[in-house]
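Worked Example 4.2. Consider the chain below.
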Amino acid sequence: MGLTIGGIALILFIFVELAQKQPLLELKAFKSSDFTRSIILTWIVQLALFGAMLIVPLYLQGVMHYTALETGWIVIPYALCAGIGNPISGGLFDKIGARPLAFAGLAVLSISLFILSNISVDPSLWVIILCICTMGLGMGFSMMPLNTHVLNSAPRRLVSRVTPLTTAAQQVVLSLRSWV
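Applying the procedure from the previous section yields the following structure tokens:
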């Protein structure tokens, strides 16, 4: 019921925003096919990443019986590896562009998610930590180039108005992860 009401409210919001001269969110940026493709790919990556990072701690606590503190220590490498991957991909972005970086990051991310999807009830903790590390690197090498490409692909006259749009859209997509 709540999803239906939310969907109807979102559709009404879109119609109202498109009719405004100074809209709260500049939805006309979606007329750019490059922008639309980029943001949809970003949403898909976010659903996969944040969905996995929701399930992994639940798995560690519910199935492997780690405490919340132990689980926190186990998933810290994700943030560390993402923190390593982001500046490296930022430096490479200027040299080779978004596509090769995003492709490499998505490939690494897909492999680690595939391995995680096939773990048994009693896997080695090191396998999980390795998957978490590669997910962090994949995120670092894919999200930064994709987010930068989203901003670069927006129509020039709308660039200053695209950041609130992408942030709001990402929040809507991330709220769907618990439903999907």
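The chain has a mean pLDDT of 85. Residues 41 and 96 are 19 Å apart (CA to CA). Compare this with Example 4.1 before moving on.
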